[in-house]
Structure formats: structure tokens, C-alpha cells
Amino acid sequence: MADTQQAHPRAEQKASRLAKQINTFAKAHGGAEGQIAYIGERGARIVLVGEDGGWGDLVAPTYEIAQKAVEKAGITVHEAFDGEFAAKVRTGPYEWKRMAGIQIGG
Question: Cα 24 to chain center, whole Å?
């Protein structure tokens, strides 16, 4: 029981830190929406898309912490990264070069 009590405050702190990062992103991009994806033992990935099309991501140690973080930040969370949500992402020259490099083995 002592382990559970110690883990809870740390989980709360991590969720608060992630929520602060989400809010910072949202401020810089005119607002934000997100999607949480389970990534196995590593936890969960929070994908963020700003109103200006900018995007980024954060990794939470657990899916539950990711959920708590987006709740604290107050952003809209999508079930999947598709449709209208995915269409909001704007990529720049850097991303296109990276994608081309991956395709040709670079």
C-alpha cells in the first residue's frame, strides 16, 4: 500500500507538468487539440495539433497520466488521428525532406 501512495503524488506531478507543456504549446499555436495513443511499455503518446497547423507530441509514462494531463489542460481529445483532425496538420520543408530521406534510404 505504501508504494501506491508514493506513486500517486508522482503521477499527479507528472500529469501537471505535461498539462503545463500542453498549455504552453496551445498558447504558441492559437489553441490545440490532441489524441492519445498507447505505445506499450513506454506509456502513451500525446499528439498535439495547434490551430495554426503546428504539431508536436509528448510521452507520458502511462495512458492514465496522459488522460489526466489532457483533462487538466482542457483540450479537445480525439479518439483517432484521422479525418478532419489529421487534415489540420501543416508540414514544412523540414518534414518533407525527412520523409523523402526515409523513402530513399537517407
Answer: 12
